[in-house]
Structures are given as structure tokens and as C-alpha cells.
Amino acid sequence: MSLEITPTDATLAATVRGVDLSDLDDATFGKIEAAWHEFGVLIFPQQNLSDEAHLAFTRRFGPLEQSIRRNRPTGISNLSNVQADGTVAPPSSLQARFLVGNTYWHSDSSYKRVGAKASILAAHVVPDTGGETEWADMRAAYDDLDDDMKGWLEGKVGVHDYAFSHTPFGGKEILNKEELAHLEPVEHPVIRVHPATGRKNLFVGRHASHILGEDLEESRKLLADLTEQGAQPPRIYKHKWAVGDIVIWDNRCVLHRGHRWPDDQPRTMVRTTVAGDDPTNEWVMAGETRGPAVIQGEF
Ligand code: OGA
Ligand code: MN
Questions:
Q1: Site to substitute for ligand 1 among 81, 104, 247, 256, most atoms within 8 A of C-beta
Q2: What is the pLDDT of residue 97?
Q3: How many structural domains compose the chain?
Q4: Prior bond to 189 cis, omega within 30?
Q5: What proportions of the chain, in percent to the nearest 5, are helix, strand and coil?
Q6: Hey, is 56 helix, strand or coil?
Q7: CATH number for the domain including 259?
Q8: Is the distance from the beta carbon of residue 53 to the nearest atom of ligand 1 less than 6 Å?
Q9: 291 falls in which pLDDT band (50, 70, 90)?
Q10: Stretch 77-98: mean pLDDT, rounded?
Q11: Pocket of ligand 1, candidates 58, 95, 133: which has the most ligand atoms within 8 Å of its Cβ, to mutate?
């Protein structure tokens, strides 16, 4: 097998074939990592990884991130509308409502003091129609801003807030008091520099509530507008999932959102998360050698 990397027509994302992610040598991993830095999103069709292989591939990029459910150690999360008894969760249920939040552009865990580095999502059960995932290149979105806006945003700090973005989708109901206490609003620069490539990008999305020191409503609207304008062609790429596909994206410079599917159809995606590279990151999962646990409706 030889590695075959095919860029999409968008400014981000490439499809990678000719590799078995469950059996990856260091040289091939190096090429994959370099391509990931270049394209931000890599799509690996038809890998059909076991949870163990999915976790092992994830750890090549760094330690796993602790989920918001701190008292429940999890390495792998089920994003699924299938309930424990095998039936599809009704739209009014907390499980289904929580998933709807994912249909708004976001960077995973940006409401944490150190956000996620990478997310790795695999399709286990897919609906007949809908349920795509889409990514937006916020490096190219930054490049596209006019110089006045670039100048104004430089040095500005965004406040990212779990309660702000998740409350409409049951985000407070899925956590206990102690877990919520770890999710106070946090600050991130609006313009970020990618540590591997040095490229600037616009760090916005649904968890970004407002800009520190600016009018709350006005800066909230500005952040929403920047997200919306950034996530336009040719900076977006949408993937139609087939069972067994796996995708890795870079939360440090790419936003993503899910698309809805018929409420009565099952959809199960399995997610792992690489913690942000920061020696003081309190969200790095402890006891990483523990086996995978599976929970419902994360993120
Ligand atoms: C995620 C996410 C969207 C989707 O996995 O973090 O936002 O399409 N997923 O399931
Ligand atoms: Mn997400």
C-alpha cells in the first residue's frame, strides 16, 4: 500500500487512502501529521477501526482529553441518538436535544481553559440521508479579512463560555454541580497563531460569547458574523459519511458542525479527543492506560 493524499476543492481537507490506521509505522505517521498540518482535516474512508485502534491512533497525536463529565473517566465518547435500550431517542429527550448543539459551528472544548488539539470521529451507524459533518478553514477566513478588521482584532480576547453555548441544548442538565464548576468562562485570543505552521487564524464559533472589554451585544454579534462569513465557500468542506470512515481535524484552526438527519433514524458516531498541547493543561486525562469507557451524548 502506498499513501495517497487527495486534496478537496476547498481550502482545507484531504482524503487519505492507501494506509491502514491500525498498523501505522512512524514514517507514515509523520507524513500523515504533516498533511494534517497542511489541510487541517484528513478523511480516511473505510478504516473500520476497533475502539482500541481508534484510541491508539488518537494517542499518536498526544494524550487524551478528559471529558466534561469529570467524575466519569472516558477515553471514547458516543455521539448517538440511540438509547441504552436500542431505540432512537425522541427529539424532546435530553440525549437528542444535546446533539442539536453540534449543528452550530464550533471548535471542540474551546470553552475549556485549554481547548482540544484534535478530534477524531468515526462513523458506526449512519442515516440514509443527512447527518453530514462540515468543516470551515479559519486560517483562510482570517486571510480573507480586510486589513482594518485584522488590525482591530489583533490582541482582542474572546470569552468562551459553556453555559452560554450549551444551556439552550440541555448542557446544564447533563452535568452535576461539581462538573459545571469546572466550566467557568475562559479567555482565548480571537486571532491565534498555529504552533506548527505559524499561520494566523480566526478563533470563533458557538462557544465564543463576546469580546473582553467590548460591548457585550455588539461583540457577540461581531463574533457570530465573523463565524458566518468565515464559513463560506471555498473555505468549507462537507463529508457524507459511510460506515467505517474516520476523520481527524485540528480544533486550533478549523471549525466544524454536524447536519441534521431524520429524527427517527439512528446515527452513532464515536469520538476521541487529543488534549491541547500545554504542559499545564488540567484537561489531560489522568490514568490514560485505563481501558475505554463509553458514554452517551458527549460534546
Ligand atoms: C463532534 C461534532 C458533529 C457531527 O464530533 O465534535 O461536533 O456531525 N460532531 O456529529
Ligand atoms: Mn464538535
A1: 256
A2: 96
A3: 1
A4: no
A5: 25, 25, 50
A6: helix
A7: 3.60.130.10
A8: no
A9: very low
A10: 96
A11: 133
